[in-house]
Amino acid sequence: MGLQSSTMLKTISRRGLFAGALAGALTAQTRKVRVGLSGFDGHPEEILRVLPESPWIELAAVADDGSDPVARVQGLKNPFAAKATHYDALEDMLAHEKLDVVAVCNNDGRRAGAIRACAARKIDVIAEKPLALTRADLDAVYGAVKQSGIRLGMLLPMRFDPPYLAMRKIVAAGEIGEVIEMDSQKSYQLGARPEWQKHAATYGSTILWIAIHGIDLMLFVSGRRFTEAASMQARVGFPEIGDMENVTASIFRMDNGGAASLHMDYLRPESAGGHGDDRLRIAGSLGVVEYQESTGVTLLKKGAAPWTIRDLPPKGSVFLDFLNGSRGLTWGEIVAANEATLAAHVAAGSKGWVRIGNGG
């Protein structure tokens, strides 16, 4: 099957990082890549966890940017964040620091504005997902990226996890034939939720916040496109979480006429091992490949016994990939994930099929 994984780059090349607005601004011999972190509400650990092994990256500054107080305190326990210059507002950080990249990890409602503020100063951005909550704001982000010429990445780290990298290789090798049907599950423990997730203005919806992972994985593994979406989402019980939906379901029409489905919930018991139960099943004309944590990656083909894939590719980093030129997550893939997710969100409100645009 040719499932041997390529060796991870031992040294991160800076050529990709400087392909856009940073071209010629830095070299490996002059200084480190200076990074600013704006907000602690998303997953800043995707940035912070690579710093101990990446001495060429400097976390120069952090901005609170309206972060949840608990998240801010937790984030500042990181030694790299603790020693960085601190600002209350993103605008102050941008005005006083010379940065090469800003990692935008604020709440969902503030994200589009933060990206545009960085673009206005021609600073590359890697942002939490989604990029925006509305059609108008998403188009404004696209416009800012195009006008400024910056590079914009997004925190979709699951596509760099070994099981999904293996599934992509299996599908790309033709082992299951033409992809015809896909199913994705995301089930999480509810736990204590920050205030910003309880309000639609700062959260958007559970489809916007969580579905984008499952959508991206289906697109990434299958190599197909989605053309239409239909959805529902609701909060059933749990009045303490406010506007936050705890159940969702979406279906997508694929470009070849096939179907894909995604369901999510915040109903996983605290007694369950681990915070989440993520599953992905890709069915094709010649077989099925599927993943769940309890069984691993399994390939099923006609006339053959089920095969559990043991030799998985190494785990990657979405942040290091961005700095290395976005080979593992392209701008086109970011646009596709945002467009399909926004369409699914809109469909939940309209109670009908919504066409998925090309965007960007």
Please specify the SSE layout and strand pairing.
Layout: E1 33-38, H1 45-48, E2 57-63, H2 69-75, H3 79-83, E3 85-87, H4 90-96, E4 101-104, H5 108-120, E5 124-127, H6 135-148, E6 152-154, H7 162-172, E7 179-188, H8 200-203, H9 206-222, E8 226-234, E9 247-254, E10 259-265, E11 276-284, E12 287-292, E13 296-301, E14 307-308, H10 318-323, H11 331-350, E15 354-355
Parallel strand pairs: 1-2, 1-4, 2-3, 4-5, 5-6, 7-10
Antiparallel strand pairs: 7-11, 8-9, 8-15, 9-10, 11-12, 12-13, 13-14
Helix pairs in contact: 5-6, 7-9, 9-11
Task: Describe the model.
The longest helix is centred in the C-terminal third of the chain and has 20 residues, at 331-350. Helix 6 links the parallel strand 5 (124-127) and strand 6. This protein has a nine-stranded mixed sheet. 30% of the residues lie in helices and 24% in strands. The chain has eleven helices and 15 strands. The chain has 360 residues and is α/β, with parallel strands linked by helices. The model is unreliable at 1-29 (pLDDT under 50). It folds into two domains: 33-154, 3-Layer(aba) Sandwich (Rossmann fold); 158-355, Dihydrodipicolinate Reductase, domain 2, CATH 3.30.360.10. Helix 5 packs parallel to helix 6 (135-148), helix 7 crosses helix 9 and helix 9 crosses helix 11. It is globular and about 65 Å long.
